[in-house]
Specification:
Layout lengths: L5 H4 L8 E5 L16 E7 L2 E9 L2 H10 L8 E5 L20 E6 L7 H8 L5 E8 L2 E6 L2 H14 L5 E6 L5
Antiparallel strand pairs: 1-3, 1-4, 2-3, 5-7, 5-8, 6-7
Length: 175
């Protein structure tokens, strides 16, 4: 059975790792629907305990949980949103603590980076959602899972002994 709000809130291109649940009597009643999925954090806003934020590492798990919400036996409403980590402020630098899954890889020698080369280099760390060109020597690599991006960032930097590659995290919503 579809709920009336579903068609308004389910927009595939707008899915995020954070799902906001409203209309809860208590936070425990939703737990069985995400307990088997890796979660970065669950929190409520102190003033309003019937609103719950669930932050997933993996976008696909957030989407799966969102789908599960269509079968809830109570009237909770799921909404994709951004978490306190994912809201870039002017002074905020995107870093490994922001639960982002996109890294920018730059060839400092100004040589062209191919999509295939970047995919091969990064796919060993986790499933890639997209590789996008920024400039001929730069590629955005977006993983489904923020932990994969973090591992790629660390391992590629470790292996980059000739220092010709530069990696940095970028906000997922800026790509």
């Amino acid at each position: 059975m579809k709920r009336p709000y579903q068609e308004e809130t389910v927009i595939e291109d707008k899915s995020t790792r954070t799902v906001l649940i409203t209309n809860l009597e208590n936070a425990e009643q939703i737990k069985p629907f995400y307990k088997d999925l890796p979660v970065k954090e669950v929190y409520t806003i102190k003033e309003n305990q019937n609103i719950l934020f669930i932050i997933f590492y993996d976008l696909r798990n957030a989407e799966l949980f969102f789908q599960r919400c269509s079968t809830l036996p109570f009237p909770a409403v799921p909404i994709y949103t951004v978490s306190k980590y994912e809201i870039p402020r002017e002074s905020d630098k995107c870093d490994e603590g922001k639960n982002q899954s996109t890294i920018l890889i730059t060839n400092k020698d100004n040589n062209t980076l191919s999509e295939e080369e970047v995919s091969k280099m990064c796919s060993i760390f986790g499933e890639i959602k997209a590789v996008r060109e920024y400039r001929h020597n730069q590629k955005f690599v977006e993983f489904y899972d923020s932990r994969s991006a973090l591992e790629a960032f660390k391992k590629i930097n470790e292996k980059n002994s000739n220092n010709n590659l530069s990696l940095r995290f970028v906000w997922d919503n800026s790509v």
